[in-house]
# Entry
Amino acid sequence: MKPPSNVARPATTISGPSIRLPAKDLAQVRAIAATVVLRTNSRRKPLLFIGAHALAAAGAMAAILRRNLLTAGFSSVVSKFIGETEKNLDQVFDEAEASGAILLFDEADALFGKRSDVKDARDRFIELAVDDLLRHTGQYGGLVILVSRSGPSLSMLLRRRFLTYDFPPRRS
# Structure
């Protein structure tokens, strides 16, 4: 048996205060879970949870669907060495596939934040990491949730690639 990686870890090992979801947010998570169950793998899009309660909503989603939640922070996946980011992503998605877990990527705003023009190798490197992640989520048979605490910094073009939900919901 392969030893667990240091790139992805079960959500129970995440440190920090636990946040209880308000009833309105929990009702929204239940509705999202019902929709996710009805979708087939070929039509499934990754979910993007935005807001202060986004991480708690992802945990509630896993509990409602009775699945484990495997968490990967972008800081542990993205590497400065050529080929390491793709290898780390392969490892994370393989672990999630083997365990049947919901895959949670925290800190999505760090990777998907608005970027202007490609000015140097770092910008190109981030674009490649984003492309790798989007390719993996398209091929993955399970559920992928990305969490961002600040939604406005994400581009609309990118938001269309995900089913986006706000926690707490925006008031109209």
Helices lie at 23-38, 54-65, 74-77, 84-99, 108-112, 121-139, 156-159. Strands lie at 9-10, 47-50, 69-73, 102-106, 144-148, 163-166. DSSP finds seven helices and six strands in the chain.
